[in-house]
Design brief:
This protein is α/β, with parallel strands linked by helices and about 250 residues long. The chain has seven helices and eleven strands.
Length: about 250
């Protein structure tokens, strides 16, 4: 599979390493210094099967839309531009070019997403617990709270009747409190905590390195190649399950 990497910071470099280890060819690297070479992809002598984009929120929409217009399926892990995602998904549908955005590509974190949804439904039935989300990331992370924390929060809001929204450092009764902490050299920690008068329940995920995110992004790219619409990371997880346990 021929892959283009857009954004060559620490994540892009690890994605390059893992993609190569999995037998793929990284045929082009686009970074800020050569971003104008993006247009060259449509006239390249090689076929690009998929692009993997990890940049910053201000650049993500342009990068992704350019790929879609050139017929290149694109996986992006850039967060902090949620308000534009619906337009990009519509573009993917109209152009019949694959698109997949995830707030977190870690396979372990996506298992936690499923647990989070299930637990929220159980907590709604009991109605005695107050939820809170805490996320801790490295100081270079620009968006706050993290896209992963927002994904967790949205499932709580969707499934718990008396939670109407989220805010950073909220003290309001019916608003989910998200605490966002920035520390040096922390790949990512997320906790969903439920407190009651009687006990405390918590699910959490702690990344040990960026390699888990990079592996998930490459696996998502392998899934997306040749696809014609927008997908979620849950579709990737489901495909892995079906491949392991075929009916």
């Amino acid at each position: 599979m021929n892959i283009v990497i857009i954004g060559y910071g620490r994540m892009g470099q690890i994605i390059h390493q893992i993609a190569t280890e999995r037998g793929h060819d990284v045929v082009k690297i686009i970074d800020y210094s050569n971003r104008f070479e993006m247009e060259d992809l449509k006239n390249s002598s090689y076929k690009v099967d998929v692009a993997i984009e990890f940049t910053v929120p201000s650049e993500a929409r342009v990068n992704v839309s350019n790929c879609l217009r050139m017929g290149i399926p694109v996986v992006t892990g850039t967060t902090g531009w949620n308000e534009e995602l619906d337009d990009i998904k519509n573009m993917s549908h109209d152009l019949r070019v694959g698109f997949l955005q995830a707030s977190n590509f870690s396979l372990g974190m996506n298992i936690v997403f499923a647990l989070n949804k299930f637990l929220a439904k159980m907590m709604n039935a009991s109605n005695i617990y107050q939820p809170k989300i805490t996320e801790i990331h490295h100081t270079q992370k620009l968006d706050k709270p993290s896209g992963t924390a927002i994904t967790l929060a949205n499932e709580l809001i969707k499934n718990i009747d008396n939670i109407y929204g989220w805010e950073l450092d909220s003290t309001a009764e019916n608003i989910l409190n998200i605490e966002a902490i920035r520390e040096e050299n922390v790949p990512g920690i997320h906790r969903v905590n439920y407190q009651s008068e009687f006990d405390e329940i918590e699910i959490s995920h702690k990344a040990k390195s960026r390699k888990g995110f990079a592996l998930g992004a490459v696996i998502a790219a392998e899934f997306l190649a040749g696809k014609k619409r927008a997908y979620e990371m849950s579709d990737v997880i489901e495909s892995l399950i079906k491949a392991t346990y075929p009916e």
